[in-house]
């Protein structure tokens, strides 16, 4: 409860931060970043999302927090579009199911896009399978409205949920993201290697881009590339970084 009352102050007291982790294509070119939330707490230091996202969801604070994330990410996206070396970058933003299901979500997204001038085509919303459990048809309708704005969708943590695969074809998805739990243990656990290869095949057969996260070594990248994986994210290419540390890396790779 104490953490919750402090978290309530995090937005007004300007304690939230976005870190950015690069995403690369098969040639190693940086094509975009994922925005990852941090809480700069005056006493505890930099708190990772793992320690406060569930509290934010239980208390519905995820709604204003998610809005802060969206607005900050879109403002950054618009700033990058004005710089030659970051012009074409995309921005992936994690969306909590609760945030997505707010009736105002699409309207707020439109307002933020218009206010910041961010190009919708450069914005990618990361959603998870859990979103489809309760009202899959309503979720699909909302996705179609967002898709009509030009915004893209990535299915995050893919393979860790329990839902059936039948929805994949019916949803306006652009990308599947293989969860890092499968990628990191690729060479130790044959079942995970089979899952990685299957997800890549599935995505390719459905016309979806496949990105692997948690790519930590060249060997992992090469194995995934050989299976046909389109894009990569992980410590091999860069850790989540604050803006000031990310920008030199972007300039260098341009
Ligand atoms: O940055 P990483 O370190 O630890 O993030 C852990 C998890 O927290 C991510 O897998 C992601 O799902 C979640 N997360 C990170 N940033 C956000 C955010 O802005 N909104 C939501 N809802 N979840 C986030
Ligand atoms: O949204 P999501 O769960 O997918 O966020 C990705 C999380 O994975 C972030 O918390 C990020 O810090 C973490 N991460 C990103 N790349 C790597 C990696 O190569 N290895 C490990 N162990 N974690 C990673
Ligand atoms: Mn994610
Ligand atoms: Na993930």
What radius of gyration results from the CA coordinates?
Answer: 18 Å
CATH architecture: Alpha-Beta Barrel
The CATH class is identified as: Alpha Beta
Helix content: 40-55%
Question: Could you provide a short overview of the structure?
Answer:
By secondary structure, the protein is an alpha/beta fold. The chain is 41% helix and 22% strand.
What does the model show?
The chain is α/β, with parallel strands linked by helices. It has helices at residues 2-8, 53-58, 62-81, 97-100, 105-116, 136-148, 180-184, 190-205, 218-227, 243-253, and strands at residues 16-25, 30-41, 45-47, 90-94, 123-128, 152-158, 175-178, 209-213, 231-233, 241-242. The chain is globular and about 50 Å long. The mean pLDDT is 95. An eight-stranded mixed β-barrel has the order 1-2-4-5-6-7-8-9, surrounded by five helices. The protein has ten helices and ten strands. The longest helix is centred in the first third of the chain and has 20 residues, at 62-81. The chain has one domain (2-253): EAL domain (TIM Barrel), CATH 3.20.20.450. The structure holds guanosine-5'-monophosphate (2 copies), manganese (II) ion and sodium ion. Manganese (II) ion is lined by residues 34, 94, 126, 156. It comes from Billgrantia kenyensis. Residues 1-254 form the EAL domain. One of its GO terms (molecular function) is cyclic-guanylate-specific phosphodiesterase activity. Keywords: c-di-GMP, Membrane, Transmembrane, Transmembrane helix. This is cyclic-guanylate-specific phosphodiesterase.
């Amino acid at each position: 409860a104490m953490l919750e009352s402090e978290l309530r102050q995090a937005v007004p007291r300007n304690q939230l931060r976005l870190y950015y982790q690069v995403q690369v294509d098969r040639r190693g070119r940086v094509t975009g970043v994922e925005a990852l939330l941090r809480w700069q707490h005056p006493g505890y230091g930099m708190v990772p999302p793992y320690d406060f996202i569930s509290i934010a969801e239980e208390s519905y604070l995820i709604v204003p927090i998610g809005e802060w994330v969206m607005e900050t990410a879109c403002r950054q996206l618009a700033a990058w579009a004005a710089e030659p070396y970051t012009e074409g970058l995309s921005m992936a933003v994690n969306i909590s199911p609760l945030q997505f299901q707010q009736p105002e979500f699409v309207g707020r997204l439109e307002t933020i896009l218009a206010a910041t001038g961010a190009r919708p085509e450069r914005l990618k919303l990361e959603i998870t399978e859990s979103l489809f459990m309760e009202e899959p048809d309503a979720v699909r309708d909302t996705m179609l409205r967002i898709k009509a704005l030009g915004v893209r969708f990535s299915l995050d943590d893919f393979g860790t949920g329990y839902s059936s695969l039948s929805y994949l074809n019916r949803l306006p998805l652009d990308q599947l993201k293989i969860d890092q739990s499968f990628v990191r243990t690729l060479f130790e656990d044959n079942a995970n290697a089979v899952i990685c290869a299957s997800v890549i095949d599935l995505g390719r057969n459905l016309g979806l881009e496949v990105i692997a996260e948690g790519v930590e070594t060249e060997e992992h990248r090469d194995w995934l590339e050989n299976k046909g994986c389109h894009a990569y994210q992980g410590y091999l290419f860069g850790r989540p970084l604050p803006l000031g540390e990310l920008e030199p890396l972007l300039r260098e790779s341009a």
